[in-house]
Amino acid sequence: MTSPTQMTRRHLVGRTLLVGLAAPSSVVASRLKASAQAPPPPIADRKPTIQAYPNGLAVDPYRWLEDPTDPEVIAYLDAENAYLKSAMAPLSDLQQHLYDELIDRIDIDDQSVPVPWHGYLYYSRSEKGLDYDIVCRRKDEPGAEEEILVDMNAIESDYVSMSGWEPTIDNRFLAFDLDLTGEEFYEISILDMDSGNVIERIPRAWGFVWAPDSRTLFYAAQVDARRTSQIRRHRLGTEPASDATILREDEPGFSVGVGATKDRRYIVTYAGAFDTNELRYLPADDIDGTPRLLAERTPGVSSGLEHRNGRFLLLTDRDAPNNTLLVAPAGDAPPTSWETLIEHDDERPLSGLDVFADHLVVYGRSGGFTTVWTVDEPAGSLNQIRFDEAIYLVQAGANWTYDSDKLRVVYTSPVTPDTDYEIDLRTLEKTVLKRQPVPAGYDPSRYITKRLYAPSLDGVEVPISLVTLREGADQPRPLRMDGYGGYGVNQEPVFSLARLILIDRGVTIATTHIRGGAELGRWWWDDGRLLDKKNGFTDFIACGEYLVAEGYTASHYLAAMGGSNGGLLMGAVANERPDLFKAIVANVPLADVIAFLLRSPIGSANMDELGDPVEAVFYDYQLSYSPYQNVESQAYPAMLVTSGLEDSRTPYWLAAKWVARLRHLGTGDEPLYLRTTMAGGHGGSSGVDNFAVDTAELYAFLLSQFGLAEPAAADVGAPVAALKAGGAVAGSVAGTRTEARGHAMTRADAVRRQLPPQ
């Protein structure tokens, strides 16, 4: 890894952006123009292609950019990268300074909280100077020596991503998966932890769980396109080609997954789309059998299953948009045998649960914020576990052990570092197990957080979570406003060591909770999808207008950022209100909605969120907001658009075509950049060093847009003066949709290092 004190030229100008850049300020931009060193931007050839859509013909001049095997396509992407490289040159000192700050904060020796598992403690740790985590264990006894299980730094690949790992109950074998391209095609490896050797590999597989016999692995196979379509059973010592398929899914928009109840008495399979699934179960003492249907497939209904003390617990949104908890005797229970344990509540969406031999815990939201409750049985009454701050995120930690009286949660807020708590479920007493390391001298009292509400076009109040420096907070400041607004995905108020670098320089961070997410319940999601998708766009614009009107910032110093579906959001608001923003960062954007749905390998899987363009009503609606089709001859803000050549979710050509059209039709002098990761996917490049390089580039461009391009941290008064001069500016349920995923599939999530949000 590059020394934290010296970024190489390759890192300075050749690495990929993970979540984008803003453009140089007017001062820097004028220097670029005057220098005559920056080449003209690349102009993609227009090669009109008549495209037949279900509702008519259309001409697409940039359809040719959709072929990654065409040398002209690669040459165009390389030219765009070179153009950005040249434009970045005047900011190299700032990038180096930001890189050094980031490395000092995130490249440290650290270790996750060890998790007990049948006589062993499992954890991951990082070492300063290494890009990736090291998965380890030791016996749960004093003085036990560490055993290194998987050192991702020893893998020879430019890209390395592990989505999960899990040990067997007898602690003999470890299953883990790796993606070495960024395409999200994973291979499962099985490690013999006694010998330290990988003994078997299963290609094209993603998501797995061990059976209680410690010799049988159930996994989801990636057979066609980009989805998992089969659940297979693998016996150690046999060839993967002979693995039995126990569940097959033929519906193109559905994928399959597998998990286990926490007590390991049942294997649980599901087949689902974004808002629909069906559940099947297989008793652990009949692992050679066929999964039995428990919750049938019904459009718009999603459920998750657990087992405790001889009863099934079903968290479901059937006739209960915010979820209700049902119970019934385990087995082939008819629907009439299910009883309600926790009633549906319009103001309290439930998202997951954790079961213990003597305790039951549910997760959800109250007033838009994440909440944890213990459940008094049999009445089903809820007791909230309370925390002190008004704005925060709390979520399930690593709760692997069924016979336990202790609950682990991870707590964070915009000013509180990630904190692992262990809660005694008998007394609700909290014990801090670990708090995220922060730089010496970090003082949370220097910052303030606020929850604001912006009135949208239809009168709906849209929440905003804001964090800024306390000193001078009554004055307008440069502000970055982030948004996503889709798929029921929530934008949470979290702590980020990286973002503090911006905040300490006088930049306010505002996270919008617009419709399309599920912060306020299922209705909040439904009100921002399908034929109501535009509500999220108007919400985001309303948030920006509110922050300007209330004096938190001004349009000439307001930046917007979002990725994937949030990139679609960025494209829509750029077309609708380009005058509102100084800069827009659109990362891996879903910029051509109709082409994505009809030609992307995973397009059909997204129709539950966006609609099927074969139907005229959806085609016409999508055509009215899709960023690519709605580019106009107008002046746009400074824009940075990022993509990944191996992106299997939002293909690179969505961004490339959009930028090409913006270059052709856009007017004005603000810069427009396209950055394509040539060896990475939806998440960009991998590793701590790449993260620091990418984030340094992002922050350099944002700060230069705000007129804060000096390497040293600005004092609080500097950005205010610049503004005045400018004048204007999951739980453990197997099979549920959002925060409650099958815990057996993702045991590594709570015990590995997470890079801070940018």
UniProtKB/TrEMBL annotation:
Q: Which Pfam families match?
A: Peptidase_S9 (PF00326), Peptidase_S9_N (PF02897)
Which keywords label this protein? Hydrolase, Protease, Serine protease, Signal
Instruction: State the residue spans of region: Disordered.
Output: 739-758
Give residue ranges for domain Peptidase S9A N-terminal. 42-435
Q: What is its EC number?
A: 3.4.21.26
Name the domain of life.
Bacteria
Record's keyword annotation contains Oxidoreductase: no
Its signal peptide is: 1-29
Residue ranges annotated for the Peptidase S9 prolyl oligopeptidase catalytic domain, each copy included = 495-707
GO terms under biological process: proteolysis
This entry's Gene Ontology molecular function terms read: serine-type endopeptidase activity
Keyword Magnesium belongs to the record? no
Transmembrane ranges, per UniProt, are: none
Can you tell me which family this protein belongs to? Belongs to the peptidase S9A family.
Q: What is this protein called?
A: Prolyl endopeptidase
Q: Which organism is it from?
A: uncultured Thermomicrobiales bacterium
> Upper taxonomic classification of the species?
Bacteria, Pseudomonadati, Thermomicrobiota, Thermomicrobia, Thermomicrobiales
